[in-house]
Design brief:
Bound molecules: alpha-L-arabinofuranose
CATH superfamily of the largest domain: Glycosidases
Radius of gyration: 24 Å
Largest sheet: 8 strands, parallel, barrel
Number of helices: 12
Structural class: alpha/beta
Distance between the termini: 29 Å
Number of strands: 25
Strand order of the largest sheet: 2-5-6-7-8-9-10-11
Helix content: 10-25%
CATH topology of the largest domain: TIM Barrel
Length: 539
């Protein structure tokens, strides 16, 4: 079969197709990809491509909020460039205000005249006191956050304080946000503070990491709290409740949390209360590694990608437990923190705590993660990268008037056409990539991918994790579909460490890639260490 495919490629090259001229004999596997676009599967919820921003170091302050008097271009204090770039990728949501910060945050501190707002405790203040606004200044509160959401066109996802708050504080925040104008006194107060119309927030997180910084609870203890917090919830519109889920990157995947929580909710009628979303956290955690975000060898490249794709096992394991308690599978995942987390050493500056260098490796990790999310679209309502700017797996870095998009940003741009599409199965016939450098000669997909269809547009995204070999990929449509035209973009660089800096912001970026289209087949060459997005128009 491989010989057959090679024969095809040789004849394609012989036909003189410009993009394929110079094709050398293949040294590695090539790939046959079979897709039937006439059998669309579940909707890929646009919220899968969501965001997370926390009051932590330079995320909110400087990253997003530069202040109304700043010389940095801004809209009501919000960095204009950030708004423009978020619009460009169609950012569907923003999770706020934390993170660990959320369970120490009291929303009333962030309303009213900015000069009169109190300076308050921030979870990160005593742990990483060098951080920007380590003592919380409360200049960015719910009104500023909702202004940001409106500017970007994103939906708000608020994380409520369970760790140090009360159900009443939570319910008041809901009423303040959602009560129609002229009803409750809290709605009047909102109007006095500048927003007559309700915010209509649908997504409410009931705490964050309640197994850790959000309260150090067991799954069963949290189930009791969860009931209390949602029992008297003011329902101005149908809420979507997100319960705290497991620490998926812990050694055992934290399946005990999921059992404890769902088991704790169980009564004779089943779950008894609604759990719309279950907040899985999965960090590709390399904090203990000798390498950092910028300096790594080939082993480090593959190790990060390998640990990244392990999220698929974690999704499947927890879904299995959830299905036991919720056979109708009404509860969906909200993977509201995911991304790479390296040891310190590459921060933008000491005050920009938990910021780190993002390289081409992070872009490939992003793409492979998105392919997994797409393929599990039936299970996932939302996902939120941690965090959007100046922290961990960021899309942007900003310090004062300096600003850049990171390599990871471009994966969001490339995958945008999947948002709101219908998943179609892509059968990728290629041997797995064996990595002798990793323990047990671990394996990675020879080519990671996913596909979706919307009307007559078919999007196929592919990632080649190999540092050595390109892959010639032949996408063949079954079910009688035929192609009208195709185009593709590629994200790659000859240096696996390539990154964008304030001085060289365009070192890593998108380029056009040739696609050969004929009848029911599209053929592309996926370079080594590259992400490719192929946009095909069906007849
Ligand atoms: O994203 C940084 C921190 O990681 C968040 O505050 C917390 O929820 C997680 O542990």
């Amino acid at each position: 079969m491989i010989a057959h495919r090679r024969q095809f490629l040789e004849s394609a090259a012989a036909a003189g197709v410009a993009a394929f001229a110079g094709l050398r004999p293949l040294q590695a596997a090539d790939a046959d990809i079979d897709i039937n676009p006439s059998q669309p599967g579940p909707l890929i919820n646009p919220h899968i491509y969501g965001h997370f921003i926390e009051h932590l170091g330079g995320v909110i302050y400087d990253g997003i909020w530069v202040g109304r008097d700043s010389k940095i271009p801004n809209i009501d204090g919000i960095r204009t460039q950030f708004v423009d770039d978020m619009k460009r990728i169609g950012a569907p949501n923003l999770r706020w205000p934390g993170g660990c910060f959320a369970d120490g945050y009291h929303w009333r501190d962030g309303i009213g005249a900015s000069g009169k707002r109190p300076r308050t405790y921030n979870y990160w203040e005593t742990r990483m006191p060098q951080g920007l606004h380590a003592v919380e200044s409360n200049q960015f509160g719910i009104h500023e956050f909702m202004r940001l959401c409106r500017l970007v066109g994103a939906e708000a996802y608020l994380a409520a304080n369970v760790g140090s708050g009360t159900p009443q504080e939570f319910h008041d925040w809901v009423s303040y946000s959602n009560a129609p104008a002229g009803t409750l006194s809290l709605a009047d107060e909102r109007a006095t503070n500048g927003d007559k119309e309700p915010f209509n927030v649908k997504y409410w997180g009931v705490g964050n990491e309640s197994w850790g910084c959000g309260g150090n609870m067991s799954g069963g203890e949290y189930a009791t709290e969860y009931r209390k917090y949602i029992a008297q919830f003011p329902v101005y519109q149908r809420p979507f409740f997100v319960a705290t889920g497991p620490r998926g990157h812990s050694a055992d995947g934290d399946v005990g949390w999921t059992e404890g929580f769902f088991g704790g909710l169980q009564n004779v009628r089943g779950l008894g209360v609604r759990v719309d979303g279950f907040a899985l956290h999965y960090y590709t955690d390399f904090r203990q590694s000798a390498e950092d975000g910028a300096t790594f060898d080939a082993k480090g490249w593959y190790a990060v990608l390998h640990k990244g794709v392990h999220i698929e096992n974690v999704i499947n394991d927890h879904w299995g437990i959830m299905s036991k308690y919720d056979p109708q599978q009404r509860t969906k995942f909200v993977i509201d923190e995911w991304g790479n987390w390296y040891r310190g050493g590459t921060e933008l500056g000491p005050e920009y705590i938990l910021s780190q260098t993002s390289t081409l490796r992070d872009a490939l990790h992003t793409a492979m993660t998105f392919d997994i999310f797409n393929r599990h679209a039936d299970k996932i309502e939302m996902a939120n990268v941690a965090q959007t700017i100046n922290c961990l797996h960021s899309l942007f870095a900003a310090v004062g008037d300096k600003y850049t998009r990171t390599p990871a940003y471009y994966a969001f741009e490339m995958y945008r056409p999947h948002m709101g599409g219908r998943l179609v199965t892509a059968r990728i016939d290629i041997p797995e990539l064996t990595v002798p450098l990793l323990e047990g000669s671990a394996r990675l997909p020879g080519l990671s991918g996913s596909a979706s269809v919307r009307d007559k547009s078919l999007t196929v995204t592919l990632t080649n994790p190999s540092l050595q070999d390109r892959v010639v990929a032949r996408i063949r449509l079954s079910g009688g579909a035929r192609l009208r035209e195709g185009r593709a973009t590629v994200l790659t660089h000859q240096d696996m460490h390539a990154t964008n800096t304030f001085d060289k912001p365009n070192e890593v970026g998108l380029a056009a890639l040739a696609v050969q289209v004929s009848g029911d087949t599209a053929t592309i060459i996926v370079p080594k260490q590259a992400v490719v997005a192929v946009l095909l128009q069906l007849v």
